[in-house]
Amino acid sequence: MRQTARTILAILLISSPAWAQKANVPLPKPSGFNIFSVDQEVQIGRQNAAQVGKQYPVLPDSSPITQYVQRLGHSLTEQLPQPTYPFQFHVIREKDINAFALPGGPVYVNLGTIQACSNEAQLAGVMAHEISHVYMRHSTNEATKKLAPELGLGIFGSIFGGTAGGQLAQLGGQFVLGSAFLKYSRDAESQADHVGAQIMYDAGYDPFQLALFFAKLDEEGGSRGSQFFSDHPNPGNRSEAIRTEVQQFPPKQFVTDTPEFDHIHQLAMQEKTYTAQQIANGQFSHEEPEAGPNTNGDRDREGPQGPPSLGPSGNFRSFEHNAYRITYPENWQIHGDADSAVTIAPRDGIANDAVAVGAIINNFQPEHSTDIGTATQQLIASLQQSNPALKQMGNAEDVTVNKVHGKSVDMIGKSPLTGSDGQPERERDWLVALPAQDGSVIYVIFIAPDQDFMNLRPTFEQMLRTLHLK
Ligand SMILES: [Zn+2]
């Protein structure tokens, strides 16, 4: 029963962005001088995430609390312009109310935060705030300000010294946690509150709940809440600023709480936590020594019917096709060659000659030379001819992949995997169609059972980010 409820919630979380009523105000674009490239941010985030895995008691990815936080997180990051960073979400066994994000996507939430939240919207608010720091590039922006002068880089360092960011990225692992990357300016804080409120609104959560949560932390004063405010300094009147912002959004029906949050909250209350001091002293034991960014998505199924291990490796390798190149998890396999349609899938990702988990990359010739929007609709119609179960969810959205403007479409289909009831599992298919130079369309379909899609999405996004048409 619990599994059913969770699956339904996962579907709701997955589905909501396509149907969500968008705010009238578009998200601001990241701004400010930054000597780091997005790829470097991702690299720095990975290096530091490996450190976090060693220095903090991180809950294993198999924990239902972590899995819930991951689903919640991805329902929020879906509100960002796509493709976005390869976000990952983890929970730390720390008593203090805090959360932090590393450049390029890793986000960490303390158990103490989950315990202190009164409802799902408040937790979504804290996470949306952290996601906003990543999206707005606050860490590398701060690091640029702090480190560029130290390294003798002028304000034009990124233009004239093209490798400056690269050198810093190599040093990334040495940027010890708690130093350059974790302290934000008050400007960055008010921006993260502002963008976070908008992400909440777009995802269907009442941003007012974040204001309530901050007000509650304020009241607790010097006790558990102080940790959050030391990493995320109060820009002043932060609750009031969020309230004022929310009043400018069109009215909307909000989700405040869910039965699943209540269940996870109960589980969180029973979990062992450590104080910041105990963690600093290393007075904890690792539950899963391998835990870290490389095991993201690599979890066991609850039922016996699922495939054993579909988890992507965190290491990527490159594939050269005559029409494009792309990187993919090194433990996945390529089916096809440089001229043909290509499937990239984990060894266990193919069931009954169909792809259950993985990506298909192929070429489509539209009927007449036409714009990418019309070509994408023709492509979907053609896919549906061979797979009538395939249904489009929401509208085709604009997507830009390495400067090529294409379309992104979410679809639902039937998985070749069957659930415990013997019926096909619900499948999520994410189609990205891009115009090729010869007038044809190169498209990728990222495929996974609905319940696994959110875990795999960071991998799919990472693959998409590296797709270069020739
Ligand atoms: Zn903050």
- Biggest sheet: strand arrangement: 6-7-10-14-13-12-11
For the secondary structure, the number of strands is: 15
Helix fraction?
40-55%
Instruction: Describe the main β-sheet briefly.
Output: 7 strands, antiparallel
Identify the bound ligands. Answer: zinc ion
Strand content: 15-25%
Query: What sort of overall outline do the alpha carbons produce when their principal axes are compared?
Result: globular
Q: Average pLDDT across residues?
A: 79
Q: Count up the domains.
A: 2
Structural class computed from helices and strand pairing = alpha+beta
Q: Would you identify the regions where 5 or more consecutive residues have pLDDT less than 50?
A: 1-24, 153-167, 169-181, 289-309
Evaluate the radius of gyration.
22 Å
Total helical elements: 16
Intertermini distance: 49 Å
Short structural description:
By secondary structure, the chain is of the alpha+beta class.
Describe the structure.
The protein has 470 residues and is α+β, with helices and mostly antiparallel strands. It has two domains: 2-295, no CATH class; 316-469, Protein Transport Mog1p, Chain A (3-Layer(aba) Sandwich). 41% of the residues lie in helices and 20% in strands. It has 16 helices and 15 strands. It has a seven-stranded antiparallel beta sheet with strand order 6-7-10-14-13-12-11, sandwiched between helices. A three-stranded mixed beta sheet has the order 1-3-2, sandwiched between helices. A hairpin with a 4-residue loop joins strand 2 (99-101) and strand 3 (106-110). Helix 2 runs parallel beside helix 8, helix 3 (64-77) crosses helix 5 and helix 5 (120-135) packs across helix 10 (208-220). The radius of gyration is 22 Å and the shape is globular. The N and C termini lie far apart (49 Å). The structure holds zinc ion.
